[in-house]
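# step 3/5: fold
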Amino acid sequence: MIEAQGGEIHFFAGIWQARQLLRALQPGVVQGWMYYGNFLALLISPLGSKTAWNIRSTMSRNYPFKIRCVIGLSRFMTPDLVLYNAHAGQQSHGFFNSGSTQVIPNGIDTQIYAPSEAGRASVRESLGWGDSAVVIAMVTRFHPDKGVGEFLHMVKSLQAAGHPVRKFVLIGRGMSADNPKLQAVLAEVGVSEMSVQLLGERRDMVQIYAALDVLVVASYREGSPNVMLEAMSSGVTVVGTDVGDVAKIVADGQRVFLAADQLALTQAVAFAVAHKGEFALRDRQRIVDEYDSERCHQAYKAMYIQLTHTDI
């Protein structure tokens, strides 16, 4: 056990140990997080404790067998509350039984994720982008659901149109030259490493966002993607697939497209490049108003008070 900002963090080795720990602590709420965590939370929750589940994406038919089994078993459970980070997730999980449901969108620190001319200049100089380049990036982990192939098809199309001042960048876990699966996708699409800068996982994303011009979310499945919120708060123009609450966040039909539609993605990116300066202030203000971390924190606090009828 370690202490952390007014609370405690406990680590346990198995279900029995976790169950014994919760019996000793007698918490007001046992909060699960995603399918495995939700299932376990209700399984080990002691009598008298409320159980809340947290769903972070829309339902998918392509889940691995183990996740589908857990979801199937969860249909027969009844938590006190199922919490979603996106309205689309709430709609696609209507088969869950619960006392109530609620949507609390993700929240980010809009003071940290903010436009920065100094950060922009520093990153662009260090990565060799220059002042005039239009930098188009995807920030995500390498995964079939993330639409990396679609992003690369867009790169190929825009390069064929001939725009030398554009830079294409892949950032995130697995987005590096030493990932053989990524190399296979590059080869399949016919895009060379010289055409796309592979930055891998970065620890300086606050500065990186400030240096981007357009962020692409090409996912097949999302809830309320943090990278989109962080980028928009940083003054980056975002385009994204019509999955989860992406369309609600972007709030601009010309920058939203259907998943797997490579032509529509290319058109949306071209539109965003041509109009990128027009959206920055409006987009950032919407993130500040609706997705700030303090707003999220207060919503969670109110939810726990409502569940337990105890002020915290």
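# step 4/5: annotate
The chain has a mean pLDDT of 92.
# step 5/5: archive (pending)
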